[in-house]
Amino acid sequence: MGIDGGTVSEKMRETAENTTTMEEQLVEERVSAQTRPDMHAERNLANLRVAIAHEWLVRYAGSERCVAEMLEAFPGAALLTTVLEPSALPAAFRAARPSFFQHLPGATRHHEWLLPLMPLAWRLRPAVEDVDVVISSSHACAKAVRIEQGIPHLCYCHTPMRYAWDFDAERERFPRVVRPFARAGMVWFRRWDRRTARRVTRFVANSSAVARRIEESYGRSACVVHPPVRTDFFTPGGERQDFFLYVGRFVGYKRPDLVIDAFADLPEHRLVMVGEGPLGSALAARATPNVSFVGTLGDAGLRELYRSARAFVYPVDEDFGIAMAEAQSCGTPVIGLSTGGAIDIVEPGRTGWLLREQSVEELHAAIRRAAAEELDSDAIAESAQRFSAARFRREITEAATECATAA
Fold first, then answer.
1. Which is higher by pLDDT, 133 or 33?
2. CB contact set of 213 (below 8 Å; sequence gap of 6+)
3. Residues 266 and 203 reside in one and the same domain
4. Co-location of 324 and 395 in the same domain
5. What is the CA radius of gyration of the chain?
6. Taking a C-beta distance cutoff of 8 angstroms, is the pair 331, 313 a contact?
């Protein structure tokens, strides 16, 4: 009997499909082993033993504030990272355990240049053991933390790695000379990122937009726990004035250029820009007289501007966007973008306005509307209470407890 070429091709495809299915089953079994309760282990769920892994600790910004609240929720938790700059952080972070990167000259100042080696930094650490659950606070490589088999892993994902999945938005973080090589390297990073996602028992996203990215990038579902906002500090007060406010780093994806260009055509409206960054000089050169720059402010100064601004202008596709929630906590409406974290924060017509796209024309319309309409400041501030730090601690504790006991 002759050999039929079509039959052979079908058999080859069937074999390949079976092999893929077997690999997927092995991954599922490994994750299942992590989520299966150990009936012989006695876990005190009222006092979980927790280890927390965070990318790097060199500044105190939004993701680090999440870690601070995790440390508050889980006293005594071990904190792991790649590099540590104690002088830039609250005292609670100074016991963090950095990787061997800590001994490299300039590592804390230029940690992002070490990104190609970050997987190695996590790979060479001893596996975490003797805890009930590991929480990774991840926007790059921290979810690759090594964990002893059988210990569940909860990933609080700020976003799938932007370097790998949206390089154009992040290219300014890299020196110009290395950008072509970095872009090429991100092909490998995407594969590695998907592979390490399989080790996670459960994902928690910081916004509904990030939950969708997790689904698209990793094929995994995620519940949402919004980041903590200091609603007890950022409170309404003082007199509302007639200026608009922008707060953020002066980098490309945060679109400070778009905001400045919009106000160039609206000389009757004032704009205050708070922040610093590589685009600072260029922004100052293109700004019109109705735009002023105040650099970086402390919390008290920032609160005063939030309280007195007519509206907070932030046309940015953010993972969440804590500054928007801080402004609302002070009773100030927000002009945001109808993608990213703003869709979880801004209720159009009640707590602010959403732009359909990042364009000068859309901003013009929203600014004019904000200048003409009076929204209820008390209602705006009340809406922001759903982002409180106490709520975050409660929800992350519930997620960690469920992860530690999941079948």
1. 133
2. 159, 160, 165, 205
3. no
4. no
5. 24
6. no
User: pLDDT tier at 174 (50, 70, 90 boundaries)?
Assistant: low
For residue 282, the Cα-to-chain-centroid distance in whole angstroms is: 27
Same domain, 78 and 154: yes
In percent, the amount of the chain with pLDDT more than 70 equals 86
Calculate the average pLDDT of the chain.
87
Q: How far is CA 151 from CA 193, 214, 340, 356, in A?
A: 20, 22, 32, 44
Res. 209: pLDDT tops 60:
yes
Q: Are residues 219 and 86 in the same domain?
A: yes
Which alpha helices (DSSP H) does 36-159 contain, by range?
62-73, 118-123
Total structural domains within the chain: 2
Asked if residue 295 and residue 400 are part of one domain, the reply reads no
362 within some domain? yes
Residues 49 and 132 in one domain: yes
How many residues would you count in the chain? 407
Write out pLDDT tens, residues 238-285: 899 999 999 999 988 899 999 999 999 999 999 999 999 989 999 999
Q: How far apart are CA 247 and CA 250, in angstroms?
A: 9
Structural domain boundaries enclosing 100:
42-228+390-405
pLDDT of residue 18: 41
Kindly state the tokens that stand for 364: 């013009």
Residues 253 and 394 in one domain: no
